[in-house]
Amino acid sequence: MQKIIGSILIVAGTTIGAGMLAIPIISANVGFILMSFILFCIWFAMFYTSVLLVNVYRYNSPEDGLNTLTIKYLGKPGAYVTGVSMLTLMYALTSAYIAGGGDILRTNLEHVLDLKIPPQLSAILFTLLFGGIIAFGTRAVDYSTKVVFSVKLLCLFLVLGLLLPHIETAYLSYIPTTPLPALATIPIIFTSFGFSVVIPSLVKYLDGNLRQLKWVFFAGSILPLILYLIWEMTILGTIESSVFSTILRDNAGLEGLLVAIKASSDSPWIKISFTIFAAAAILTSFWGVALALNDYIKDLAKDRPKIKHNATAFILTFLPPILFALFYPDGFVIALGYASISLVVLALIIPMLMLQKAKKIAGEKTSLLHYVIYGFLWVLSILIIVLQLLLAMDLLPS
Length: 398
Known about the structure:
Layout: H1 2-15, H2 18-26, H3 32-56, H4 66-113, H5 119-131, H6 138-163, H7 169-172, H8 180-191, H9 199-205, H10 210-238, H11 241-250, H12 253-264, H13 269-300, H14 305-308, H15 310-327, H16 329-337, H17 339-362, H18 368-392
Helix pairs in contact: 1-6, 1-10, 1-13, 2-8, 2-12, 3-8, 3-10, 3-17, 4-5, 4-13, 4-15, 4-16, 4-17, 5-15, 6-13, 8-17, 8-18, 11-12, 13-15, 15-16, 17-18
């Protein structure tokens, strides 16, 4: 039972990261009603495809990693596409979390020690202190996530408790006059449910128990959906849409969100709780992403014992994102801009193709209902890719 709870929290912890902080910011001009619909549709798509990938393990060993499965069912071309998507996404996210976590660590150390710390040193310290947990395997990430996730929830509930009394129902009924703001949020909302990368790690951790795994991914993904909806209702319900948009124009990113939250409540606990929550959100997501990347590298090198070794895999997991975060930050900013395209390939397209091939080999048929859902998933995949490209070319307002 402890493994199941830990696995649920790894899924939820990987999901509730930077996306949780970004969602209210991008939905200022969208409104609660439309955002709730978008959140539900994307949650359903991500949960359904996680079950598809879990079902692929009906025909395979729980020890098989994503690279092993894609070579088996999609051949080397499919494995190459998956590999590029996986490594681009995971290295970009790991680099972003190292940079963000390092900044938070540096700020706190400077406050406590009263001295200036170079950002390069804080990034390395963050990786060694918190990334080192990955070297001890999924069980260590399980226990660590339980502790930090509990702190994260406590701080989130404190922020919600301080803001909920200030909700105005009239603010929640806002609907934009044009669908463009809502469409622009879809790629970012999609990446906010990026838990599918941990599926192979958890399949191995739970010894391929399909029933437990399906429950883990349902509970682990529905928890973030519920919290996202409550979070959206609280933020969008306590500050009027046009006022929130004005604040965000004057204060970009998280600073704007914090200003908006403080404008809704004058409690001194707001800033402290929100700061701890933001740090914990980055940390749990960092662990989930780094664990998935580490296991994927081991699977890629399963026929090369020297590379598969824990120490070598650890270095290959963290050295590239550290170097890029320190010396080529723009490269990973660009990669993050296309993160949703990589995730579409990994989370939506690959599970559908692999399960269909596995069923065909096993001589099993697919029901009409599944084909209908596959149609929805293909439409969503194409929509996200098109929207992301339009955003990258500045043809859609972000």
